[in-house]
Design brief:
- By secondary structure, this protein is of the alpha+beta class.
- The protein folds into two domains: 290 residues, Aminopeptidase; 123 residues, Alpha-Beta Plaits.
- The chain has 13 helices and 18 strands.
- Strands 1-2-6-3-7-17 form a six-stranded mixed beta sheet, with helices on both faces. The protein has a four-stranded antiparallel beta sheet with strand order 11-13-9-14, with helices on one face.
- A hairpin with a 6-residue loop joins β1 and β2.
- α4 crosses α13 and α5 runs parallel beside α12.
- The longest helix has 24 residues.
- The radius of gyration is 24 Å and the shape is globular.
- The two termini are 31 Å apart.
- The structure holds ligand BES and manganese (II) ion (MN) (2 copies).
- The site of one manganese (II) ion has 5 residues, from loops.
Length: 463
Amino acid sequence: MNANEYLQANRDRFLEELFDLLRIPSISADPAYAGDVERCAASVADHLKQAGATGVEIIPTEGYPVVYGECLVDPAAPTVLVYGHYDVQPADPLELWDSPAFEPVIKQTELHPEGAIFARGACDDKGQFFMHVKALEVMNQTGSLACNIKFMIEGEEEVGSAHLEPFLEAHKERLAADIVLVSDTGIIANDIPSITVGLRGLSYVEVEVTGPNRDLHSGLYGGAAPNPINILAELIASLKDEDQRITVDGFYDDVVELSAAERAAMAEAPFDEEEYKRSIGIGAVEGEKGYTPAERMSIRPTLDVNGIWGGYTGDGAKTVIASKASAKISMRLVPNQDPEDITAKFVAHFNRIAPPSVKIKVTPMHGGQPAVTPTDSPAYQAASKAMETTFGRKPVPFRGGGSIPIVASFEQILGLKTVLMGFGLDSDAIHSPNEHYGVFNYFKGIETIPLFHKHFAELHAAK
Ligand code: BES
Ligand code: MN
Ligand code: MN
């Protein structure tokens, strides 16, 4: 049997096994699910063993464990380190799901006429890393494994991978490889394959504005007492100017401006503004003057309020001036911005612009470095050739807007470049209610991955 015959013969089981994984609510952000996260790690380990991996181990960290496994076939062949994450985002708000988040079902959608698997983690990232586990089984069962493969599947990506850098430091030798391969990103459309060649970094802070020492009657005190909610709103509004440029002092100091040629190459990737507006139900796109929407979402940094609270938000009306108001703010960063430097600049700026009537507290949450990956490497060429074969169209290099902070650490700590060969769609609703992953995309991935290893082994030998 060749690889495709084996895949066709085992389609239903490959779906069932993914469903089993999706039924485990491995929410890393919520301690109430700690047992499920651990159970999920054990399940990943079992699946790796079943697919033929050896040396499978659930390696503890200060947080959730990393699942490791390997298939070493030939010391002369190159080694591919496959990275993914078995943890998922919280499913809330639960009432917005059309079917329960941890009871996977297949339903048709406009963009997935062959059906899509609806469940938290279906696309991000269980459905995607599991393609590599199933591809390993396919390659082992059909004798077509061309590279040495190592798996490292972590359980804390959705909360910032805080314990993964020490893990890389501690296991440098075990993780030695020629390239890192990750499926945790997307393609432009099912008929427009693409390979992500850039990820943004992240600086995430919480701000708190404190005014009076207690909540006050808004009639007795209103007019003279500083209102922290009003002030927070003004401060936030001042963080962007009329051109929607971020006003934090020094924010753009280290931003790498792309050349006209690079921007022209980027514009080759199709972007349909009308369809974009329609798909998220907005009247107009926004953003920084002088840049296209695609550029604003990838090569330009952002500042967004992710949450804001304070005062009375219950039913009815309560006349009150709150003592405190807070917000969570994310800044997506681009090469060569440094998360720690940007956080420090934000703290200094926010303290400086605050009026003397209030006290300010800024708490840094987490951060991550941006990353760009090369297109002239054997690994990129291998991914490109593999996708060209399975999609019937050459993939376009594409700069993404999301973040996978550990990608920069792979380079800094292990000296390894990464290939971001993901198969999701932006419309798959990752982190949102009704997350899903196309059945087409799942099997396309399992079909493409063995070809990546084949081409990578060939190109690596030719080098
Ligand atoms: N898989 C995503 C990142 C992603 C998705 C990148 C689609 C490109 C395209 C990842 O799981 C994620 O959500 N990352 C977080 C990082 C954070 C928790 C440190 C993000 O981007 O918000
Ligand atoms: Mn992910
Ligand atoms: Mn995610």
